[in-house]
């Protein structure tokens, strides 16, 4: 069987995209997903996304981590899926679609920026010795670092130690390390260890969302500009008196890199 695919990236967070409107992709074939995401033996990506039709929405986004298994919400993946749906002619510039964590709205600006509405984050943020924990569609720990430490940090080693500690070992968590800018006009610096990839990625959409919300406790005001190794993102939100957040939007580029076919 020959599989037609597209490769997309959002600030360096890259995905194999499959038009599965005919529902021919076997989502139980974890080995195939792993191979397609393998950077030496396959196409290479942080994850694989199926675009499927849905009776109640414009489309459905089905996201797999690079380990081959279904994942939770992926923010950059969601933005790339919106761009992919636009490329296929499934949507125009606005959409409402369904993902692992529920319904999302999005719109595409004339310059190609994709603005994705994330799920509301309810309740107070949980603070522990690991850092600030919150769920932005995927679970995240945010750890703030002293100035100038982020660039030299061993993100894989430090992130893995938290992801596999006693608290998170069973279900895992993503781990974000963030550095406050020296002046408010500069972006927050963020690096992320992603579960499912089990490595540092160039960017993580739900991760920078988590950092922006956690940073509001440190004086960050919406919209928050953030810089990852793969590029810049923006997170806008409305903070509520009870510690919850609503009207959360993740914004940034979502670009088609190439397309092709592979025997599977």
From TrEMBL:
Its GO biological process annotations read:
lysine biosynthetic process via diaminopimelate
Q: Where in the cell is it found?
A: Cytoplasm
Q: Give residue numbers for the site Could be important to modulate the pK values of the two catalytic cysteine residues.
A: 140, 194
One GO term of the cellular component aspect? Answer: cytosol
User: Does the keyword Membrane belong to this entry?
Assistant: no
The alphabetical list of record keywords is: Amino-acid biosynthesis, Cytoplasm, Isomerase, Lysine biosynthesis
Has the keyword Secreted been applied to this entry?
no
Binding positions for substrate per the UniProt entry: 13, 65, 75-76, 174, 194-195, 205-206
> A Gene Ontology MF term for this entry?
diaminopimelate epimerase activity
Q: What is its EC number?
A: 5.1.1.7
Functional pathway: Amino-acid biosynthesis; L-lysine biosynthesis via DAP pathway; DL-2,6-diaminopimelate from LL-2,6-diaminopimelate: step 1/1
Question: Which ranges form a coiled coil?
Answer: none
Broad class of where this protein is predominantly found = cytoplasm
Q: Where is the active site?
A: 74 (proton donor), 204 (proton acceptor)
* Major enzyme class: isomerase
The UniProt catalytic activity note for this protein reads:
(2S,6S)-2,6-diaminopimelate = meso-2,6-diaminopimelate
Instruction: State its role.
Output: Catalyzes the stereoinversion of LL-2,6-diaminopimelate (L,L-DAP) to meso-diaminopimelate (meso-DAP), a precursor of L-lysine and an essential component of the bacterial peptidoglycan.
Fetch the NCBIfam families from UniProt. DapF (TIGR00652)
How does this protein assemble? Answer: Homodimer.
Q: Which family does it belong to?
A: Belongs to the diaminopimelate epimerase family.
According to UniProt, the name of this protein is Diaminopimelate epimerase
């Amino acid at each position: 069987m020959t599989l037609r695919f597209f490769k997309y990236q959002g600030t360096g967070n890259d995905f194999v995209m499959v038009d599965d409107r005919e529902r021919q992709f076997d989502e139980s074939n974890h080995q195939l997903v792993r191979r397609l995401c393998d950077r030496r033996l396959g196409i290479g990506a942080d994850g694989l996304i199926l675009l499927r039709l849905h009776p109640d929405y414009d489309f459905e986004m089905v996201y797999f981590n690079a380990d081959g298994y279904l994942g939770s919400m992926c923010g950059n993946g969601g933005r790339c899926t919106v761009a992919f749906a636009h490329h296929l002619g499934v949507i125009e510039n606005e959409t409402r679609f369904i993902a692992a964590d529920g319904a999302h709205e999005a719109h595409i600006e004339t310059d190609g920026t994709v603005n994705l509405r994330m799920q509301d984050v309810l309740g107070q943020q949980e603070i522990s010795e690991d850092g600030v924990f919150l769920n932005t569609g995927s679970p995240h720990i945010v750890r703030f670092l002293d100035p100038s430490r982020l660039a030299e940090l061993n993100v894989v080693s430090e992130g893995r130690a938290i992801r596999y500690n006693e608290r998170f070992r069973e279900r895992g968590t993503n781990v974000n390390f963030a550095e406050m800018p020296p002046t408010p006009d500069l972006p927050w610096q963020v690096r992320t260890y992603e579960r499912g990839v089990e490595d540092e990625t160039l960017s993580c959409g739900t991760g920078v969302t988590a950092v922006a919300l956690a940073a509001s406790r440190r004086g960050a005001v919406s919209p928050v500009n953030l810089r990852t190794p793969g590029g810049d993102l923006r997170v806008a939100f409305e903070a509520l008196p009870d510690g919850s957040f609503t009207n959360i939007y993740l914004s940034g580029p979502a670009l088609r890199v190439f397309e092709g076919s592979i025997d599977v």
